[in-house]
Amino acid sequence: MRSLRLDPDLDEKVRRAAAARGESVSDFLRRAAAQRAEETLARNPSERFADVAGVVHGGGGRARRSGAAFAETLADDRKRQ
Predict the structure, then answer these.
(1) Is residue 6 situated within a structural domain?
(2) φ and ψ at residue 52, rounded to 5 degrees
(3) Is residue 57 predicted with pLDDT exceeding 90?
(4) Which of 2, 26, 31, 77 has the greatest count of CB atoms below 10 A from its CB?
(5) Residue at 19 is within a domain
(6) Residue 62 confidence (pLDDT)
(7) Residues 32, 38: Cα–Cα separation, whole Å
(8) What is the C-alpha end-to-end distance of the chain, expressed in Å?
(9) Are 22 and 30 in contact (CB under 8 A)?
(10) Domain containing 13: what range?
């Protein structure tokens, strides 16, 4: 058994949404919580990003020189000081 406190705006939205579905507020909240829990627990981390992982291809090349570029930036900063 859980107790839940909602701010007045959310409470009003929940009441209106439950009424629109013809459900009690308790049933509406139970279904919403169950759906959110299922969605959260059903996905493993790799599935959470499956729709975006590997989608963008930047052409590559920049990361190979990132260490050297950083060292050059530090050297330039030291020269300016």
Answers:
(1) yes
(2) -120, -20
(3) no
(4) 31
(5) yes
(6) 63
(7) 10
(8) 64
(9) no
(10) 1-43
The Cα–Cα gap between 46 and 69 comes to: 32
State the angle between helix axes of 25-42 and 8-21 in degrees (0 to 180), rounded to the nearest 10.
Answer: 100
Per-position DSSP letters for 4-49, written without gaps between them: ----HHHHHHHHHHHHHHT--HHHHHHHHHHHHHHHHHH--HHHHT
DSSP 55: T
CA dihedral 44, 49, 55, 61 (to 10 degrees): -100
Show the tokens assigned to 44: 């493993």
pTM comes to: 0.53
pLDDT value at residue 39: 83
